């Protein structure tokens, strides 16, 4: 059964140009395995434009439209309409966009495509900064994290991008992590069966941008989930469900202290004990809100 769940065929080919330990390459590999060859990728300017390698070669073995930074969801809408006119119903149209390309410059195109209900799987791969251009802060950089444009730590809070998409009342919103490939494949396959715009938000540890050794990517991704910093969940038709290891973490005693996640990353090296306590409190408050939702106490 395992080989059917993870097909042997590779769609992210050897020799791609990602850094060693790149979380984006890990997640995209599983996304493409889940969807198969009849997939069209739309990729705005980002690390993933570079990972493809120099034209005319490509490390992606599916068709790719490389598109301007702000335009991916609009371009994907156009592809969906064109396929419809051709009577072609067997392709998955997938946007694969960074956090900058999603939460900042691409958000208007994404919001419009969600409103129209175009049949797109939109995946934000969130490495929490503009990595391709030199680690600048984005709207999804965590509070207090170092970037080259926030040398003393980010003073603003990370936008709740999946929450913004839930408020569009789209049929499916989910989060994924490179540490849990089964969860990636099952959510992507579920999304492919649902009509309308589906939004998936991927946690993407990035060794050069987060300042950690490239051997630690999966360990850091797992610690993010087990400490409750990155929560695995899905909203199906507006109904919330925790998935994978996150199901057991509503009870605070089951969660690892977030210091274990933070201390492996140079981008948090400047934090004082008080900073870490403040970040821990924010994580605990988020989980308390989830607990109340699940128990119906917020109704
Ligand atoms: C309109 C426009 N502004 C700026 C750029 C330069 N640019 C190219 S990629 C990039 C960073 C993208 O960040 P993100 O979407 O988070 O993807 P990542 O590089 O982190 O994978 C920027 C600023 C551009 N290509 N187009
Ligand atoms: S900078 Fe980060 S996201 Fe970009 S290719 Fe390297 S590891 Fe991947
Ligand atoms: Mg980014």
Considering DSSP H and I runs of 4 or more, what fraction of the residues is helical? 25-40%
Distance between the termini: 42 Å
H/E element string? HHEHEHEHHEHEHEHHEEHH
Q: pLDDT average, as an integer?
A: 96
Q: What sort of overall outline do the alpha carbons produce when their principal axes are compared? A: globular
Number of strands: 8
The CATH superfamily appears as Thiamin diphosphate (ThDP)-binding fold, Pyr/PP domains
What fold name goes in the CATH topology slot?
Answer: Rossmann fold
Small-molecule binders: thiamine diphosphate, iron/sulfur cluster, magnesium ion
Which CATH-level-2 architecture?
A: 3-Layer(aba) Sandwich
Assembly of the depicted chains: single chain
Radius of gyration: 18 Å
What would your notes on this structure say?
This protein is α/β, with parallel strands linked by helices. It has a single domain (2-295), classed as Thiamin diphosphate (ThDP)-binding fold, Pyr/PP domains (Rossmann fold). Helix content is 37%, strand content 14%. It has helices spanning 2-5, 23-35, 47-51, 72-85, 99-104, 107-116, 161-166, 181-193, 207-210, 217-226, 259-262, 273-295; strands spanning 39-44, 64-67, 92-98, 121-126, 172-176, 198-203, 233-236, 239-242. Strands 2-1-3-4-6-5-7-8 form an eight-stranded mixed β-sheet, with helices on both faces. The chain starts with a helix and ends with a helix. Iron/sulfur cluster binds next to helix 3 and helix 9. Thiamine diphosphate binds at residues 45-48, 69, 98-101, 127, 130-133, 138.
């Amino acid at each position: 059964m395992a080989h059917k769940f993870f097909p042997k065929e590779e769609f992210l080919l050897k020799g791609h140009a990602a850094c060693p330990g790149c979380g984006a390459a890990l997640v995209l590999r599983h996304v493409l395995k889940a969807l198969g060859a009849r997939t069209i990728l739309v990729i705005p300017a980002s690390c993933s434009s570079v990972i493809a390698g120099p034209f005319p070669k490509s490390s992606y073995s599916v068709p790719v439209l490389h598109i301007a930074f702000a335009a991916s969801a609009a371009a994907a809408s156009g592809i969906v309409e064109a396929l419809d006119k051709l009577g072609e119903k067997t392709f998955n149209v997938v946007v694969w966009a960074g956090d900058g390309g999603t939460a900042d410059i691409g958000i208007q195109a994404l919001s419009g495509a969600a409103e129209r209900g175009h049949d797109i799987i939109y995946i934000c791969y969130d490495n929490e900064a503009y990595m391709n251009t030199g680690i600048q802060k984005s709207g999804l950089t965590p509070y207090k994290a170092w970037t080259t444009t926030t040398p003393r730590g980010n003073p603003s809070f990370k936008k709740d991008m999946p929450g913004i998409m839930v408020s569009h009342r789209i049929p499916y919103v989910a989060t994924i992590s490179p540490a849990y490939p089964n969860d990636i494949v099952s959510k992507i396959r579920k999304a492919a069966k649902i009509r309308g715009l589906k939004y998936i938000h991927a946690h993407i540890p990035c060794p050069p941008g987060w300042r950690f050794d490239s051997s630690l990517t999966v360990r850091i991704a797992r610690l993010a989930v087990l400490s409750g910093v990155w929560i695995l969940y899905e909203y199906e038709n507006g109904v919330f469900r925790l998935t994978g290891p996150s199901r057991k973490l509503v009870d605070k005693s089951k969660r690892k202290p977030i210091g274990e996640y933070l201390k492996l990353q140079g981008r948090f090296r400047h934090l004082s004990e008080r900073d870490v306590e403040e970040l821990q409190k924010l994580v605990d408050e988020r989980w308390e809100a989830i607990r109340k939702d699940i128990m119906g106490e917020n109704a």
